[in-house]
Design goal:
- The chain is mainly α.
- Helix content is 69%, strand content 9%.
- A three-stranded antiparallel sheet has the order 2-1-3, with helices on one face.
């Protein structure tokens, strides 16, 4: 307010001066001659109207110049204030843009970090699954190798047992032929005939137990705890046709798991061999189960 007060008072003073000068200018100035008094000399003052008008015009011009200067100062001040306001608005907008950019960068960094963590977790999970799959494949391969070896061992045993059975059959045929020949030669001797029959039946009974033993062995699934040198006396109760009624393991040098595996092997071998061994069939039989690691 103080910086506008002085120019304002000055302007008011100048305008009042103009008004006074204009009033004075409208007056009709002329020389007044008063009656001369005898013995007195009176001088009249003459005012030059043109000079007064020039002064008034000069004062008016100065006032207008002052007003123009003040208006110019005011406009400049308004321009400066407007420019300052624009700069403040621009600075505020620039700050907001900077803040927005900073926030975008921060969010982008957070998203990048989150994605990196997710990628690491996903890669770790893939590695874990791949490792588990590899271990599973190795385990399955080992199991397949063990099964293949077991089957090869079983097939080898079957081949060996088949060869033994063929040999036994040939031997039996040979013995039967020999027995038949002997019976024909000794048919007149009843005692000799009875003895020959007993020998033949005894041989067939041995073959019968061996066939049963071999079939049970083929159906045996060896548990991990079974050791070479295994021996067990197996007692079986059966009916005609080879159907099993009961199985027990007597004298035995293995563990409980091996005992159960032998009983299961006998049950899987059902029905037991019968055809061709009717003459030596026995409802209760006993044979030795053995495993020597072959």
């Amino acid at each position: 307010m103080q910086e506008f007060g002085k120019p304002l008072l000055l302007a008011l003073g100048i305008h009042l001066g103009f008004i006074v000068l204009m009033v004075i200018g409208t007056w009709n100035w002329h020389t007044v001659q008063k009656p001369r008094l005898a013995g007195l000399n009176i001088e009249a003052v003459v005012v030059d109207a043109n000079d007064l008008n020039r002064q008034i015009e000069q004062a008016q011009k100065q006032a207008e110049t002052q007003k123009q200067r003040e208006d110019a100062i005011s406009r400049r001040k308004q321009q400066l204030e407007a420019q300052k306001l624009r700069e403040e608005v621009q600075d505020d907008a620039a700050n907001k843009r900077q803040q927005a950019l900073a926030e975008q960068r921060r969010l982008a960094d957070l998203e990048k970090q989150r994605k990196a963590v997710a990628d690491r977790k996903r890669q770790a999970e893939l590695d874990r699954k791949r490792k588990a799959q590899d271990e599973l494949v190795k385990k399955q391969q080992a199991e397949l190798d063990a099964i293949r070896k077991q089957r090869e061992d079983q097939q080898r045993k079957i081949d060996e047992e088949s060869a033994k059975l063929r040999q036994l059959a040939e031997d039996r045929k040979a013995r039967e032929k020999a027995a038949a020949d002997k019976r024909m030669r000794d048919q007149l001797n009843a005692e000799d005939a009875a003895r020959v029959r007993a020998e033949v039946l005894g041989t067939v009974a041995d073959e019968y137990l061996l066939v049963i033993q071999n079939k049970v062995t083929r159906n045996w699934i060896r548990p991990p705890t079974a050791k070479p040198g295994l021996r067990a006396i197996v007692k079986v109760t059966q009916i005609v046709g080879g159907d099993i009624v009961s199985v027990t393991v007597g004298q035995f040098n293995g563990d409980e798991a091996t005992r159960r595996s032998i009983i299961a092997a006998v049950q899987r071998a059902e029905p037991l061999p019968y055809s061709g061994f009717e003459e030596v069939f026995d409802r209760e039989i006993e044979f030795e189960f053995k495993y020597d690691g072959e």
